[in-house]
Amino acid sequence: MGVVGCGLMGHGIAQICAQAGWDVVTRELDQERLDAGIGKIEKQLERAVEKGKLEQSDADAVRARISPTLDYADLADCDLVIEAITEDLEAKLAMWREVDAIVKPEAFFATNTSSLPVAAQADVTGRPERFLGLHFFNPAQVMPLLEVVRAQQTADEAADLGFALGEKLGKTTVAAGDNRGFIVNRLLVPYMLDAIRAHEQGVGSIEDIDTGMKAGASHPMGPLTLADFVGLDTLASIADVMADAYGEERFAQPDTLRGLVEAGDYGRKTGRGFYDYSGEKPVATDPAG
Ligand code: 3HC
Predict the structure, then answer these.
(1) Which of 59, 90, 108, 223 could pair with 45 as two cysteines, CB 3.0-4.6 Å apart?
(2) How many CB atoms lie within 10 A of CB 111?
(3) Is residue 218 annotated as part of the catalytic site, yes or no?
(4) DSSP character for 281?
(5) CB neighbours (10 Å) of residue 187?
(6) Is the pTM of this model over 0.85?
(7) CA 220 to ligand 1 centroid distance, Å
(8) CA 142–ligand 1 middle distance (angstroms)
(9) Which ligand 1 atom is nearest residue 235's CA?
(10) At 271, is the secondary structure helix, strand, or coil?
């Protein structure tokens, strides 16, 4: 298995695949990013051992199945390559062109895109029928769902592989069409954007909007905490793609989101977004102020 990108999603995908028994080659752009991603996996494995959920020898075996690399050439023998790089179509297309030229022709390719067209990515490879979308949810180690996305070109064999992979990973699978946002983000993204607009319009404070949805609708996280958790840069990219595709105001980026992203405040991963994560507990910021 190859996993391209070892960030928020990529490290989790690499970890669960290694835990399911596959040898995983994980590729990043530079050593710093690679070390950070592998460090996260090692921490998760350590915690699992501390909690008594994993024997030390099993954790060691999982870690040993993961081979970090900076070189696409190390993906050459993979049977399946999953990409989890930045949510930017041009970057993904450039990556697939490069990977397609290196990886054996019988291998399958999958994109973990949140919103970009699977078909457009399949088209730049010489194996569009062996290309599909596998959309994992953050944190990939915990969230039970896997959306299996079939593009126009995806052959039955590739779609079947997606469902079989989900089963082996212990995920619940759903079949989603190659529309922008698939099933979950089509519904979840406008909800988060609407929560941001509700805050802009003075409907409630950041904490009260979050508490409202947790205590009033039994959501595990409020929408603004969730936006920080997903990454505000990612949320903004998805919003742009969906606004472009559907032409509806509810998918457009609210001003507060645009401002936070422009300031480099991407949420939890940068330590600041709708909340400040530098202290012991997250503290709401004043993003519109
Ligand atoms: N990585 C790995 N494991 C994690 C983790 C992480 N980042 N965060 C939490 N966990 C594990 C914990 O270790 C714990 O494991 P245990 O049960 O074995 O002890 C378990 O998850 C529960 O964690 P906590 O007790 O610390 O905290 P919570 O009970 O509050 O759960 C949560 C944390 C699972 C993240 C929960 O708050 C939740 O489900 N939040 C909503 C997440 C969500 O909606 N994700 C989807 C986002 S949309 C998306 O990803 C699509 C993309 O395209 C934008």
Answers:
(1) 59
(2) 27
(3) no
(4) S
(5) 10
(6) yes
(7) 9
(8) 6
(9) 54
(10) coil
SS3 283: strand
Task: Point out which residues pair with 80 in neighbouring strands.
Answer: 108
Residue 273's pLDDT is 98
Q: Let me know if 135 is a catalytic residue.
A: yes
Q: How many CB atoms sit inside 10 A of residue 50's CB?
A: 9
How far apart CA 37 and CA 130 sit, in angstroms, is 28
From first to last of the 289 residues of the chain, give the pLDDT tens digit: 999 999 999 999 999 999 999 999 999 999 999 999 999 999 999 999 999 999 999 999 999 999 999 999 999 999 999 999 998 999 999 999 999 999 999 999 999 999 899 999 999 999 999 999 999 999 999 999 999 999 999 999 999 999 999 999 999 999 999 999 999 999 999 999 999 999 999 999 999 999 999 999 999 999 999 999 999 999 999 999 999 999 999 999 999 999 999 999 999 999 999 999 999 999 999 897 6
Which residue among 114, 115, 199, 237 is the active-site one? Answer: 114
Q: What is the DSSP string of 109-176?
A: EEE--SSS-HHHHHHTSS-GGGEEEEEE-SSTTT--EEEEEE-TT--HHHHHHHHHHHHHTT-EEEEE
Ligand 1 pocket test, candidate residues 137, 142, 235, most atoms within 8 A of CB: 142
Is 147 annotated as catalytic? yes
Dist CA 28 CA 208 (whole Å):
39
Give the whole-angstrom CA distance, residue 44 versus residue 280.
20
Nearest CA to ligand 1 atom 12: 142
Does residue 179 carry a catalytic annotation? no
- Ligand 1-lining residues (CB < 6 angstroms): 44, 51, 53, 114, 137-139, 141-143, 185, 188, 220-221, 226, 230, 234
